[in-house]
Amino acid sequence: MITIVRLLADLLDHAHRRQLARVVAMFVATGVLQGLAFACVVPVLEAALSQDWDAATTWLGVLGGLFVAHHVALTIGNLDGYDLACDLLDTTLARLGEHTARLPLGWYDQDRTGQLSRMASKGATDIASVPGHLLRPLIAAVLSPVTVVFAMAFLEWRLALALLAGVVAVLATTRLLSGIVGRGEGAYDAAMAEGSARVVEFALNQPALRVFGRTVHGNELVEQALREQRRASRRLLVTGFGGLGIQLLSIQALLTLVIALAVHLSLGGTLSAATAIGLLVLTVRFVESLIDFGELTSALRIAEGSLRRVLDVLRIDPLPEPIAPVRPAHDGIELRQVTFSYDGGADDDATRVLDDVSLVAPPRSLTAVVGPSGSGKSTLLRVVARFHDVTAGSVMLGGVDVRDLGTEALMHRVSIVFQDVYLFEGTLRDNVLMSRPDATEAELRHAARLARADDIVERLPHGWQTRIGEAGSTLSGGEKQRVSIARALLKDAPVVLLDEATAALDAENEAAVQEALTALSADRTVIVIAHRLQTVVAADQIVVLDGGRIVERGSHDELLAHRGRYLDFWRERTQAEGWRLLESPQTPSRRGTRRA
User: pLDDT band for position 590 (50/70/90)?
Assistant: First the structure.
């Protein structure tokens, strides 16, 4: 319990730490006052059974005072606790959102979706339940018995000694159980996160799954994840109930021992019957507190696990930001001996995605990057945009290292269109305007026209105000890409990074968008990953990547004359463009032929 209070303090700011301290102090007071009130039952019963009404009245007055003080402390503690629970829920979600937005993109992978979703839903609720619901009964379940033991030491030290030994045994059993439940809860949470990620993946990729006949009963990954969820849930339930049973058994054994000892002392004449009855009543209430503690331990352990996972995420270092950001002198891009590995291992050749890459993209120029799959093309754009910090070397924008520029200033100067387009649930207008919310209507329509997204607006039933569904589900792949391009164009950033921006467009729209993108290089620095021949030919310079290294660079004509890897690339693309579907003169069916 002390551990989880310390972990909560790590999550909260200074003002809320003080509020947490007040809540804990009030609940400690309620636990002690409750224990003292229980202890007063013994002298009240002794006085009543011996018909000493003056003593009974005095002790009843003391009991009443303790009762009032207990409820005052309880009311203050509960009100502060509920307020803190609401603030804690907001704090957890806000800190998670703010921190994950500053983490390197390399931290994210497919499994993070389920983990973050669970942290932001059940995990945040579990954490908020600690000051709102768990702290008070847990503190009372510990301090009330301890207070009773101390009080009983003045009434009958032998019974107090027996209860103290029982408390130690129960707490030891609880600690052992907490460790077992904690391991099971960790496995359970991991299984739930994995299951959530697989279900989300299954839902988002229905078109591909159905094309290949992988329907509800054919997706082994989802079914396996759900089976593991059931197994983890079963293990957690068996462990929890089994441990709780052991706890209850030990508590009942303690109660039996104290009753037997009280009867023995009473029959031996060393303990009066009135005192024995009062002590037995006190013992029963003592045991009830221990039972409450045992039942609450599992919930506390689950909340502690959720809190630790949130704090683990918050302890991940974000990309460092400069104290005094430097303003770039121009909009040119330069990579100086850049080496990058996703695991940070600069000395391991096998893990390098980029290896000693040096490149200059002058201001207001178009640089095309070509190469085979896995050669590091997309990673090159990502380090330019500082989605990752390079392992070695430096990325410069306008003569300034992007690490000295600052993320906000860098993102203000860079516009990005990646091959994997994501649109947010909302209207078409909202999705385009998110890159520049203060854009005028004329600027919005101009960007849509350049990206050939204006015909999408005309086709949709409510035009710009049409809701496009989660991840843009109501639009085709090409339409989503055009909306993404319109969003990038509206941003009007001086540096534009394009990763296969026209890959999903038909020939007519591709040509139109390509003209717009080429026009951008007149007053912008454009780096484009290109497979399309028109992009390659129009580029001011072409860089050929292979195995994370630049193997060739130059203009289109220079590289063709060099007769190296680029010439192979050009021949492959030229031959691919020569394929056409023609009608066979022998049969009405169509077959693929290549024109000479």
Answer: very low
